[in-house]
Write a structure and sequence with these properties.
Helix content is 41%, strand content 13%. The chain is of the alpha/beta class and 492 residues long. InterPro entries: GH (IPR017853), GH_1_N_CS (IPR033132), Glyco_hydro_1 (IPR001360), Glyco_hydro_1_AS (IPR018120).
Amino acid sequence: MKQFPEGFLWGGATAANQYEGGWKEGGKGVSCSDVQLFTDPKSMKDLLNTHGLCDISDEMIEKALSTDDEVYYPKRHGIDFYHHYKEDIALLAGMGFKVYRMSIAWSRIFPRGDELEPNEEGLKFYDDVFDECLKYGMQPLVTMSHYEPPLAFCMDYNGWYDRRSIEFFTRYVDVITKRYKDKVKLWLTFNEIDSIIRHPFMTGGLIESRFKPEEFEEVEYQAMHHQFVASALAVKMTHENIPDAKVGCMLTKLTYYPYTCKPEDLLEQQQRMRQIYCYSDTQVHGEYPKYLLQMYKNKGFNIKMTDEDLEIMKKYPVDFISFSYYSSSCVAADTKGLEMSAGNTETAIKNPYIPSSDWGWQIDPIGLRISCVDLYDRYRKPLFIVENGLGAKDTVEEDGSINDDYRIDYLREHIRQMYKAIEEDGVELMGYTTWAPIDLLSNSTNQMSKRYGFIYVDVDDYGNGTYKRSKKKSYDWYKEVIATNGSSILDD
């Protein structure tokens, strides 16, 4: 009988900024996600405008802070996990989850980001959440920072561009790892750390309008350096505070194929992949890859880094590599006349050989196997797939059922390719958490109508609804996959 390895961690993944809500409760400070506008893309052109959807200006922030509106700033309410966490965790546990990936909202612990003492009410909230998880034997996998730096940190310090960001973040890490040392053994430092280049406000707290356009790319890489140092120090602190803990990095696995076999297209693909791997190369090997330093030199960047920084990065690399994978894309040296496709906060050439979702993301299960092999061959460290799923429009039938066979098909084929990566390619894979096990707000557009979950939440794009939770067809399907350790879909 085909099965996944014993101890394989099945589960699902969420993020505080997309589902938690309670934005003004429990002493929480305003975060960058609380000032992000809802958008309703009407066309592929709108969907391709990923940079415009993710970034913000001082003027937009001022307007957001002048109102308590939760319709056009929907991350303020999310799916109200803050008040539904017991119900939601029970539903997740009902599928037999071994692990639950979630994030701590930094601004719930340090409302401004620069305080010397944490907010006890915020710490107590996560105590209660973790206790609820452990009650069901569900291990938390916690992301320390997932697109929600405190807004005051962004406005008063220019976010991660300011070197003091390292001090602020490591103080936060020290607090949470000491507080939860008996409850959380698996940690991730920064969600999709590479995304600072694609959406610098969400990831780096950078307000682009404050900088000269010709200097902003250097600003992004300077902020990224500070995150690399902070991540290494987070590894150090976590191991000191929780000796049996494991700490991973997390990257956006954007998998590119050359559009043709022209050498120019293959070179373009190689260069694009380097733009992805440079972040994990740095966190896994503990030093900057030479090709990234060469890029800095060629562009005339002066990234301020000390010998102590480089020593810290070298001494405290991550224990494992986690990543998100949703789709693949094509690249070419010349894109003129080629059809473009949307993806996970990026755009690329549409692959004519594979289908696309309602939001233009191309569906490529084999690409997940390719990604696993590439990462494992490159690093020889354990991998953890912490995001994979299908955003789709779900229909509630008259009898209340939701027949999301398209989601089942997507996940089944991706899980089968994961199995092949393990059994045929020798990849060491720790676990798999789908994005997202319960409906929540889409990150880029802040829409609820782009649904991922096994659990339906009755709320629409404008915050209307009962917030009632109900199971979709995929709920029982995934429950069976977990109960059989994958054999239910591997032997048919």
